[in-house]
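Regression test attached.
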Amino acid sequence: MRKQKTIVRIASYVFLTVSSFVMIYPVLFMALGTFTTRDRFLDATILPIPDTPNINRFKLAIDAGLGVAYVFTLERCLWYIFITLFVGLIGGYIFSKLRFPGRNKVFLLFLSGMVMPGILMLVPSYLLMAWFPFVGGNNAIGQGGHGFIGNWLVLFVGGWVPVFAIFLLKQSFDMLPTEYEDAAKMDGAGFFTIIFRVYGPLLKPPLVALVIVTFLGTWNDYLWPVLTISGHPQWYPIAMAIQYVNISDTTWSIVGPTDYPAYMILTFMATWPPAAVYFFLQRYFVQGMVISGLKG
Amino acid sequence: MSLKTVTGVTAVSGAVLPLKERLRRWYYHRHDAVLAWSFLIPMVIYFAIMTFVPLAFLVGISFTRWNLISPPRWVGLANLAKVFSDYREFFYLKVIGRTFLYAVAILALNVCTGFFIALLLNQNLKGKGVFRTMWYLPSVFSGAVVALLMRIYLAASSVGVLNMVIGKFGIQPVDWLNNTLWTPIITVLFPVWLGIGFTVIFFLAGLQSVDENLYDAARIDGANDIQLLRYVTIPQMVPVLFFISMTGIIGSAQMWEVPKIITAGGPNYMTYTLVYSIQQDAFGALDMGLGTAQSLVLFVMLLAFIGWQLNNYRKQYGV
């Protein structure tokens, strides 16, 4: 029985090592490719081997507009993290700890919003933004101007009711006993105090999980900005910005040797923040899912 | 009999209390409701505007013919009829069927591989954090960004990266993206590679919350490892499995990065999926009506499927 377990363990190590490498092979290729020159890269077999670390092109990319994109995307992420945590906690608490008529119906309503896939809502949401009354040159019924489209606000006014977060946090609140709350109330705690200072610290794991997921989703958001903010490069989030920045010394073409490292550098610059955020917070992530009791 | 209240108002039974006192008592009894609804009313209003208004638009547009330039023209059910008709040899029905097949394939691969990897990662191995990160890393990337990268990797000519690699081993360059065998395979593998990180994490969490006592009890009864897996682990994991399957189907049915950025729906429409079709019709051919009609079909199908599965789940678990 012991021996069998050791064999299983060794097999697991081997399999995991091989499969993990397969999984990250494209990532590794790209990461190493950012530090090679074009010719060196074209000679690469299994993996490109970097020669001189060519940091210049990173700086070039930032100057070409990525710096602005970084800052703007970060602002957007911070806004949505704030909204998700704030509204999510309040919503989760309301649906978990308060009893009131209509509680189940409203929760079901919000849940149905989660079922609606995002892609479907792109065109209609675009229209809603374009026809929003009294904004961007629109009259009372929303005609005449361009509404929120083309304005930086359009990337900040969506998603103020984070249904996924409310659902997750409701589950988490359900698992916490009301004794904490009762004790705090006896000391005179009010609504916000209970949520943010009594229960809040107990909910760190699911909250951290939400931070990771929200940051990831907002950072990588591509379709909605493409639809709504095209034509205003100063407000392009990073996933859009890298399509329009050119740091290559040759023209981008499929015919003839292409400056692959240039692509790699841009991709790398767009992708390291979510990876870093995940890397530093990942130990909370699994814990968070456990505490919220996905098993119901 | 009199009732002395906190505010010092003495009421005699049967007498009418002053308004302020009545309000105070009403608030006391309905405290929770007042609190909850003060927050819920703005949330519901926002939600109604941001979600149901667009949904109403969606339904409305699908009844029109509209190219974003001239005003929309009412055509009733023509768009929906077109989707279900034999237009271009049942083009749209084939798109739906094809998307469904891809979705199932992606989900199956995702779930099976994800579960297997989670089982491996659940052991107490050295460096499991590193392995976990390596499996999660692809999910961190934006699908659009990686798809662009893949297009370069898989370029058909001999200067395509993958072709260069296999060229060193003496294999002829392959036209990866225009190939009736490889292109669909890539169309399935790419979303799996992207999404499996999330799957593994959720499965890991589920595995870790299975009650240890169940395993001990089963071992006492003489169960071996495989029986443990089959009779303890998997049954306990059904809720997680359900969650992943539902979110997985919603996600994989909407897969669009490969057709949009890499294959343009080819070869011969083999990778022409539903959401790609919606984009092409709505924003490419500027036929918003047709695009939204397809969106509606997708939405209704997903909703029906999820409702059906949820019903089964509730019957089994009494949630």
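Expected vs. actual: identical. Chain B has a mean pLDDT of 80.
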